[in-house]
Structures are given as structure tokens and as C-alpha cells.
Amino acid sequence: MTAHRPSRLLSVFATLFVLVWMVTAGFPFLWTAWGSFKVEPDFFSRVDWTNALTGVNTVRQTGGAFTGDGYYGAWVLNDFWAAALSTAIVTVATVTLSLILGTLGGYALARSGYRYAFWILIVALIFRAMPHITLVSGYLVPFFELNIWGTLTTSIIVLVAINQPFTLWMLHSFFLSVPRDLDEAAMVDGCTRFQAFRTVILPVMWPGIITTGLFSFLLAYNDFAVTAMLLRQDNQTMIPKIASFLGSIQNEGNVMFAVSSVVSATVPLFLLVMFFQRQIVGGLTAGAVKG
Amino acid sequence: MPHRSFLFFILPSAIAMILFIALPIGSVLVQSLFVEHGQILHEVETCSPFGGCTTETRVDAEATNALRAAQPLGRFNGLGTYLNRNHLATGEIAAFWSASGSWGQFWSRVSQLPFYRALGFTIAYTLVVTPCGIALGFWIALAVNRIPKVLKGPVIFVSLLPMIITPLIGSLVLYWMLNSRGILGRALQWIADDPTLSIGSSGPLTWAVLFLYGIWIAAPFSFVVFYAGLQTVPQDTLESAMIDGASRWERVRFVVIPHLVPLATFVALVQLMDNFRVLEPIVGFNAQARATSLSFIIFNDLKAENGQLFGSAAATSMMTILFVVILLMPVLIRTWRDFSRKPA
């Protein structure tokens, strides 16, 4: 019977398929990172695509095969550092607040045996499905009226709220995996509910909290709809800033500013996967298996 | 947990969601019934000693601004915004219906209307990208499961990149490679032997590229979930199937796939929600001339240079929310059934 031994042909085919997928998934980033150190006529060559490899025009214009002009133009001349700073503030604050609200709420949902906890989760699922831009169109007029449009604080609070449905679902399923006996034992020993939560449950929940934090980070960092509409020009985060580079694309060289800022904005994500690959994979599967 | 402490724990999160998700939906509903004030015009009569008198119509900027400040919502318009040309376009459709000779002609004219154009692309994108992304993810998971163990770590690392990448950045990275001066765009020109070929100038090509982008970012998620699922496939069942003489494909079809179905429904639900809100690739690929989505036309109304169109954006938002609820309906009905069957 052939079915018993692994077929070599199939293994070869599988390996080839995986290789093709790896190139598809990884090459675009490699290529763009490489190209960001070239000048525009090389990376977007009208003449010959190999110019991007050899960097003919880069050598002619700058004297070296690689140039940091795109980065200088974006970070220094166009204040991309300010956008990076805004992004740092927004993501750190959003993750912290999301986790504080989310652990409290997720714990309550996991421990309540009543029907309303179930309905809150269902409503959260519906909220999770709302396209963010539809909510943003509801914010603008009230925010203008209250005069709170355009500040980082407003964006942070909005992002925290938009992340809540997802955070609640994820933390709820992590809390379900912590046995109920644990908090009950703590309460028998004289803890209040909150003390049991803080001193007994949270310490064993750290892996779940870190994983949920990673996903909150991604939601806040990757957001375009909210930050593009709710922030002013001068306190924009990185993603809307990149979008605004595209608007002024006529000038020669501006495209390379956009390319280099895109590469810059990819670096934190790249590091994130490198260090937290296990947690990200664990989080995806935890949500799938239990949700 | 008693009601009191439940309330205490859930309150901060609930307040955030009510204030910034539930109330805005109400605010969208109200806004969609109003429309921006027009400019206030007044007539000025100027008389010159020789030419007689002429009346001119001028914009009264002061009065216009005062009115806009006093009533920021604009004036009440009822369902007018929903029915106008940029939304449901009932009048235009009625006219097309009576003027068009055939179904084909009727549909092609309807699909030119902004709302239907966006709706058509959004639905096509959701219906193409969701199943293709799941299928591709499934095949990658099967293949990765077979390769040597040392390779698995790097493969998962690279695979995660398209998923965690910012959608706008991901679409820009692909767009720069695919446009007529990028490496893949040049390759396409060479393959098609047509030096003028460019993605942006062809409608079907733009759609295809946007779909490919969608599959590219959607596949890793299904891959990771399915790959984890494959690790828990019951080995006994696989072995007994093997002893019973099931071929490789039969084992996948009758043992592995049934094991993964619950995961697939979860992945499908998440991806449907995410694909339906497609916005960034249209901005990144600069594709609005060939393809728009519901999210994109809302974004466009809110970004409008000369006066944001809140009423118009709100009307589109309301209809988008309605579609999302329809999309979730099967899930909601199933949950409701499971729930009422369960003894309380």
C-alpha cells in the first residue's frame, strides 16, 4: 500500500509551494526596504528595472550606491519624527487603557453565569463588525461642537472604545481558562472580589494579557480611519502622515519620502513579530479554539 | 458573580462602548436626516447714474456662517439624502427602468451610480477574498505541516508579515511594485508584450489587483489558525482511515476538513467583517477611479476639501451598518437558536 509511506513527490511539491508562498509574503518588504535607499529614477525606473539593483542613477546623483536621502527628507525635512512620536503616545496609551478596561470587563463576563453576560458578548460582536469609518462619521459633528476634535486624547479614547469589543472577547476567553476555584479559594480566605482579581487572578493571566496587548497594539498602530479623520495636521500619527505624503506626490523625490517612511513604519511591526511570534500565534489560535 | 460586582467590573468598558460606539450610531442616524445649509443669497440692487439699475445675487457670508454655527446639523431633509442621486438614487433608477431596453443595459447604467458602484465592489471584494483567503491559508497549512521541522519557524515568521502589516502600508508596498514603473508592473508589460499596460488604466485589472492584495493579507490568518488546528487532528482516526484504505485526499476530505470546520466558520466570520470594511487598499492603490467601496465613499465625503458632507456620509454609514447586520444575521440567528434551546 502506498498510503503508508510519505510520498516523496508530495513532499517536494509541498516544499515548493511553501517556498513560493514565502517569496510572495516576504519579497515585497525586502524589495521596498532595498529600494528605499535608492533615488526615485532607480526604484521607479522608466528605462530598465535592473537600475533598482545596480543603482545607476543613485551613484550619479549622490555618489554612492545607497542613499539616505529619502529618510532625511521624511524624518527631518517633513517632520516624520513628530508623527512617530504621536504614534508612540497614541499606541502606548491605547494599549494600557484597553487592557485596564478589558481585564476588568473580561473577568466579569467570564465569571458571571447570568444571561446578560452572554448578550453583552453578542452586542460586542456586533460592535466589532461596525466599519470604523461609519463610527467616525458619527463623531465629527459632536466633537466639533464640544471642541474636542483634533487632540491626541480624543483619538486615544476613541481607539480604546473601538478596541473594547475585541479586547473583551479575547480576555474573556483567556479568563475562562483560569479555574474558578482559584478566585473562590481566595475569597474563602477573606479576599474581596477585587482583591481576588488583582492579587490571585491577574498574576496567572499575564500570558493572556500580553497576547491581548499585542493585538491592541496592532489595532492602534495600524489604524487609518480614526486617526486620519480625528487628528490635525500637526499631531498626525504615522499612517495618516504617509497618506498625506501621497497627496503631494507631484514633486520629484516625494515618493521616496513616502517609501522611506513606509519602511520606517514597518520596522516596529517587524520587531514585534520577531520577538512575539509565539504569543501572536497563540493568541490567534486561542481566539479560534475558544471563541 | 453577584449583579453588583458584575456591574462594578463591566462599567468602565460598558461606558466606553456606549459613548463611542452606540451613541455615534445614534448620531449617524440623526445626521443622515439633515443636510448642510446652502449659502444664503441676497439680491443687491446697484444703480449707477447712467446705466440704470441692475440686480445682483450675492452670497451673504456673514449670515451663512451665523446660520451654520446656530444649526451645525444643517436643515432637516428627512429621507431626502437617502433617496438622492449619490445614494439610493430612486429617481434615476426609475428613469433607467423605463428607458432601458434590456436587463444588461439597465444594470450597466445602475452600476455607474456612486452608491451602487461602491456596494458592488464591496460585495465582490468580500465574496471573492474571504473564500480565496481561507482556501489559500488551508493549503499553506497543509503544506507547512509536511515540511521539515527546522523550516517551520522561519515560514511562520514570514507568513505573519502580510497579516500584521498596516493595511495602508501593505497596499502601498504592493502598489509601488505593481504600478507601471515598478518591478512587477514592468514584468506584466513584458509578459503581455504591451509597454503601455498599466494597472490603473484598466478596470478589471484594478479589481484583480485589489482582490489579490486582499487574499495576500487574509491568507496568513487562516493559515495560522488551520495550522494550529492540524496539530490537534485525532491521530487514531487518521490511522484507522488509513487502514481502511482511504487515499491521502480522502483522509484530508473526510477526517481533516471536518475537524477544521468549526475553525473555518470562526475564520470566515472574522474575515467577512474585516473585508466588508475595505478602505485602505483603495487609498493606497489610488484606485478610486476604477473601484470604490462603501467605507471609501464615506471617507471621501468626510475628507471633501470644500465642506465636509456629513449628511451624505451619515446616510451611507447607516446603509453600511444595515448591511453589516444582514451579514451577521445567520450568526445571530444561530446563536439565538442555540441559546434558547439550552435550558436556562
UniProtKB/TrEMBL annotation, chain A:
Main location: membrane
SUPFAM superfamilies xrefs: MetI-like
Subcellular localization(s) per the UniProt record: Cell membrane
GO cellular component: plasma membrane
Membrane topology classification: Multi-pass membrane protein
Record field: transmembrane: 12-34, 80-104, 116-140, 146-171, 200-221, 255-276
Pfam families tied to this protein: BPD_transp_1
UniProt protein name: Carbohydrate ABC transporter membrane protein 2 (CUT1 family)
Natural source organism: Pseudoroseicyclus aestuarii
From TrEMBL, chain B:
Domain of life: Bacteria
Cellular compartment(s): Cell membrane
InterPro entries: MetI-like, MetI-like_sf
Topological type in the membrane: Multi-pass membrane protein
PROSITE patterns per the UniProt record, alphabetical: ABC_TM1
Transmembrane segments: 7-30, 123-144, 156-178, 205-230, 251-273, 309-333
CDD domains: TM_PBP2 (cd06261)
GO CC, alphabetical: plasma membrane
Family: Belongs to the binding-protein-dependent transport system permease family.
Protein name: Carbohydrate ABC transporter membrane protein 1 (CUT1 family)
Source species taxonomy: Bacteria, Pseudomonadati, Pseudomonadota, Alphaproteobacteria, Rhodobacterales
